[in-house]
Specification:
alpha/beta; Rossmann fold; 8-stranded mixed sheet; 10 helices; 32% helix
Length: 274
């Protein structure tokens, strides 16, 4: 492990906004913060919104800055990535931000029923051929509903048409209420989407963030002419979630993996130093 990564890990230990549970605290048991995030961490009763697979936390940070009346928690397993967002939040005194370093498979050990209002999934791996690892699969949807409030919303923003179509088919198969769906949010769908059922418990500023917040990789997709898709739906469901019946083969070629060329610094709106 490189010295720079070790330095970041040491700094992570000093950040108040960083929560790093050990495996013993989440494997087949409940973490002390479960059911107590508002009281013990944020010190308020504001709604809690999760960003799953948050990477460096651009969305978590931007949403928190726009909406001080909501609490945002970015979740990822990569400590060196979380370091960037956590360091920014510490430097700028963002008291409504937390970063949680854990595997999403352990998420139910960290949040109690009704504790979370919304979930954002941004540019997740579509996991082609591995449905159980897909963050909008029935397996993960069952986890989310264990801690989402009634009427809790799942937002999906992705460059992967494959993941978008799968997730939409999953929602339709399970008769979930779809609030908004678009395959090109910056292009032909922009005006329609902006005036549609797109909503957030955190208000209109959170809605506008969908169009205004871009990570480095998202900007690269756009530069290549790749459309960015969006889907939101209410997770409420009676009984087990089931896998969708859909034309998977039709969308396998509509998947994209952008890799930054060697020597190119990965920059974003919040972290211009790379």
């Amino acid at each position: 492990m490189g010295k720079d990564k070790l330095r970041k890990f040491r700094e992570n230990e000093t950040f108040r906004c960083m929560v790093q549970p050990s495996t013993d605290q989440v494997l087949n048991c409940d973490h002390p913060l479960k059911g107590n995030w508002n009281r013990d961490f944020f010190g308020n009763d504001n709604p809690i919104v999760l960003e799953l697979g948050c990477g460096k936390g651009e969305y978590t940070v931007d949403l928190a800055m726009r909406n001080p009346s909501c609490n945002y928690i970015g979740v990822d397993i990569k400590g060196a990535r979380l370091w960037k967002g956590a360091g920014y939040a510490e430097k700028h005194g963002l008291g409504n931000v937390a970063f949680l370093r854990t595997r999403i498979e352990f998420i139910c050990s960290l949040f109690a029923p009704g504790e979370v209002s919304e979930v954002w999934v941004t540019f997740a791996d579509p996991q082609i051929g591995r449905e159980k690892k897909r963050l909008t699969s029935p397996l993960f949807m069952d986890r989310y509903r264990r801690f989402l409030k009634p009427g809790g919303i799942v937002h999906l923003k992705t460059d992967s048409r494959y993941l978008h179509e799968y997730s939409k088919a999953m929602a339709l198969q399970n008769k979930l209420e779809i609030l908004a769906s678009a395959i090109d949010i910056y292009g032909e769908d922009h005006d329609r989407l902006f005036e549609s059922g797109l909503m957030s418990v955190c208000g209109r500023d959170a809605v506008e963030a969908l169009f205004e917040v871009q990570t480095f990789y998202e900007s690269q997709y756009l530069a290549q002419g790749i459309g960015i898709t969006y889907l939101s739906f209410i997770a409420d469901h009676e009984g087990d979630y089931v896998s969708p019946v859909w034309d998977e083969d039709a969308w396998k070629d509509e998947n994209h993996h952008f890799m930054a060329p060697a020597g190119v610094s990965v920059k974003s709106k919040f972290y211009p130093e790379g």
